[in-house]
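Reading a protein record of the kind used here takes only a little practice. The integers have meaning only within a learned vocabulary of local backbone shapes. With that in mind, consider the following protein and its fold in token form:
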Amino acid sequence: MARTLTLLGGAYLARGDVPGALDAFTQGRDTAVDVGDGVTEARALNGLGLVAREQGQYGEAMEHYLNSLHVAQAHGDDAGEARALGNIGQVQADLGDYQLALQTFREMRLLAERAGHVPLQASCAVDIVFALHELGRYEEVLETAAAFLPFIQTQGLTRHELVLQLNVMASLTATGRAARAALLGDHVRGLAEQAATREQLTHFHLTQGHALLESGQLDGAEALLEQALVAARSDHSATQERLILGHLSELYARRNEWERAFRLSREARVLDSRRRVQDLDRKARVLSVQLHTEMQAREAQAEQARTAELSRMSEELTAAQRHLAAQAEQAHQDPLTGLPGRAQFQAELDRRLAEAGDAPLGVLFIDLDHFKAVNDALGHTVGDRLLQQVARRLRAAVPGSGMVARTGGDEFFVTLRGLAAEEAERLSKAILTSLAAPFDVDGHTLHVTASIGVAVAPQDGRDVTALQKHTDIAMYRAKQSGRNRVRTYEAGMDSESAQRLILDRDLRAALTTGELLVHYQPVVEAVSGQPQGFEALVRWAHPQQGLVSPGKFIPVAEDTGLIVPIGTWVLGEACRQAAAWQGRGQALTMSVNVSARQFEQPDFVAIVRDALAESGLDPRLLILELTERVVLRNPEAAAVLLHDLRALGIRIALDDFGTGYSSLGLLKTLPIDVLKIDRSFVQGDSAEVMVGAIVSLAHAFGLKVIAEGVETSEQLAMVQALHCDGVQGYLFARPAPAHELMPVRPGWPVSPEQ
């Protein structure tokens, strides 16, 4: 039934019955899922993509095609993979990404040949020739078509031969061999009359008419082009109509019928303008789907591991539900969540310690990350209801003999007998997994993470006070490690906390003692390797500890607010260095990172203005880099501030692009000049597809693109082929102090080791 429904959807689509096709493909997909038929599921998903594309919903079409590709890959279905890649390539071609489409069609060809699927092999041959023609590689079109034609003719695939020959005719015309193209058209006419669809017949009349026009046969050309124009308008084919109008305009110009020529030329320009607007919107939708799919793929393996862990704990979770149901009736509960409060938890922990003796007893301190932001943004009512849902998930995640308590605010404790350190960490990770799923609170979708500190009696303490203190220290270390983590108490962590206080104190002193440094990493032009500028990066030369890693002191600076004066100092130093290079005739841009706290300072625009004035730097050479997360904290306020900054003459770069889910809206609404592709996309498994899609969209919005994290010659060749404007990474140079940079050619200071 699944296969029949899928074939029926194809028949409906061929007849132009889009609603019927949608219904049949949907039923076919659902039935295939029910019976576990991945091959048919992949075909049905392809069909749904064809329906979406027919309706102009390119983002939805790409989503169906990518899902089809993943299903086919999971079932080892080479033909299904080839079919999905062919459709993905068609979308890329529709959006004008012909280089990317050509690469996709070539991947399709390899899979089709491996599967021995003749129609798919013929289709990808036609698609490759089409992409080559659109790229203007006309001689390759003729060579490739000559190689494929015998195979297609032997198989009797008339429609494929027709489309192939039409591309040959167009390439001949484009290379000044219009008379030869017109002669070939006499042969192609027979193929068109035999097997062409309405669209293909219009394409033939258009192609043959253009060949006749270029060979000087104006009357014959006019008849064919007028016939093609009527058909294109009847079929609402704006692409074909635009091309036909252009050819007719040229024809009438050759006859000196200037009024008609101008009118048709103007109509063609209007259609072209509409097409460009539609393409921008379609590209935005398609890239949004691609980015989201890439993120999902990266999280898939981790999700599988979490699922396996939850499965192993299912019996304990069932017992926990029974236990917590009885516990809810106990006295002295927290009135908000129904959990035991601080006093009851401490009394119960003291009793369990006495009963346990030397047997292990685990204690977990759970603190929600960034909970204050929920209260500040959505109010305490939403915050309270979120805490209630968190409490329910904690109850479900802790085994039946365990105890969960809320001791205040967004802090929770768990204790469980017989829980050694390894089991306590495993339970903690299961709790993080249970909190990972989104919360739906009063119509708000909220994402919650937590930091968990673990201590185990008796080795980490034999009384309530010691255990709570040590879980607090371990939890703090989890926060320091980036949040959404588990840390188990270890001897020496007390001194580590003291060391952090010392680090905070020393960092404050470093601002005035000259220990902070600025290193500079080159940003080069992708193709020539010539410099575009530098990115300024702060470093700390500690008098006792040596060079302190930014990963160690930047989080401290952000937590304490020191990042604001540090950022102001770095901005001033970077502007002075760029101005010094400018004074030596080396007009290189200087990129400076801006933290969220800096950006939100009321006088930030004045700080930037002062740095420019004091240094004498040309504002056009300064680029401020912000991450998506910084501007997404308050997009409306960010837009106003960015406009004020650009009024100074500087430029704005969006850093780590692609790591968030609202990137496309930023490109449309915020005044951005430069887009920096995150290194995870440059170095990832799907790098070529993702970087190519991002570059294409960014260029459509008029943005420059810089690829970060380029570390190998292969990565450089890829970003060059995909037309990135700039490149940054260890392949060229690591960050270095200004005094170690030297001008080896005009305008090009680099590290001596380079």
